[in-house]
Amino acid sequence: MSSDSSEVTVSTLGEAPASISKLSASPDPSEAPSTTVLVAGGGICGLLCGLALSALGVDCHIYEQRGTSGPSQSGEIAYLITEELDKFLAAHKVAVDRTRVRTAGRQVLADDGDVQLQDSRSQDYISYEALHSALLECFPQDNYHAASKVTLVDASHPDVVVLQLDSGERIAGHLLVAADGVTSSVRQQLLPNCQPAYAGYLAWRGVAALDSLSAEVQHHLADKGTLYKGANLHMLVHPLPCSSSSSAAAGEGQPLAWSWFNNQAAEELPGLLLDAGLRVYPHAVPVGRLRLR
Fold it and tell me: Which residues of 17-40 are buried (b: 16+ CB within 10 A; e: fewer)?
């Protein structure tokens, strides 16, 4: 990386970044460098933020702890493409038309499985992997730093913030955006008293191959967004855009994603958030490790 004032600055562990003074506001506006924004976390939110800032001419750099793009660590997640998201993707020329799937409508099921309500309005879904890859393709590649976890935030300098990565490198910028998830190391350092609160329910997610289901189930669920709300739970089922990972998980054919939201008391969580080795996770069990019983 360059130490030019328009780029992020890297120095060795324990040393203040050499160009902090260059990043600080200049008395002469004509000599002032462009604003440098550092984003901790290169997931969907981090990339959306990075694209928006880059479009405004901001020198934005994203630091992501994972080494490569791919499925979410929590499994294959599908995003609903809302009107606002659709407009953003179009404005930033993010190509997702080939990786989104559109339902033929929506429906709500009764307790006996019959259709209780129907709505002809369609919905578009896209997988985490496909959306992340499309966003990453549009973001300046030299400004996306994979395998770079933010471990320390130093906000003691005037006008700038300094990040330290797990490699020991220190980076200076004018502004820090924390988009590093529910276990955000940035939030833990800057807002130690701000902790995640349990919402009162667990979300169980899975993927099924459509052709592995009965003909009747295929007929009712194949091309629709389906909701069922029962006592202390609700379920969502919808088509999942094909991707290499989802196809492998579900087998051949169109994948069908399901999410089961079940109310659970907080004291029950340690007995549910277990992997096969009986390790307890605080928020989510990684994909493929869930204890089966």
Answer: bebbebbbeeeeeeeebeebbbbb
